[in-house]
Write a structure and sequence with these properties.
It contains one helix and six strands; from the N terminus they run E-E-E-H-E-E-E. The protein is mainly β. It comes from Marinococcus halophilus.
């Protein structure tokens, strides 16, 4: 199972709570992708591999889903009852 375990924010956005400001996400488990992956690459991976799933490594382990804002491609966790996206609760580097 692929899981997102940490995030890196864009330069100057370390403390923001905007999922679009994530630069890259650390992925563990299963086959590729592994290690640090740019959010745009994860968007493409999920688009090109619809049967593969990536989960956020915190309860309730929501699935990553593709999202777009204009031309900007990114990923976020599937909606649940938390105020901020679960990706933003992962450790930051």
């Amino acid at each position: 199972m692929l899981k997102a375990t940490a995030i890196r924010m864009r330069v100057g956005q370390k403390d923001t709570d905007d999922v679009k400001e994530i630069d890259s996400i650390h992925i563990e488990g299963g086959p590729s992708p592994k290690g640090w992956e740019k959010k745009e690459n994860l968007y493409d991976f999920l688009r090109d591999n619809p049967n593969d799933k990536i989960y956020v490594d915190i309860e309730p382990n929501p699935e990553l889903i593709k999202a777009k804002d204009g031309e900007q491609k990114y990923v976020r966790s599937s909606p649940n009852d938390t105020e901020n996206d679960n990706l933003l609760k992962l450790p930051r580097e």
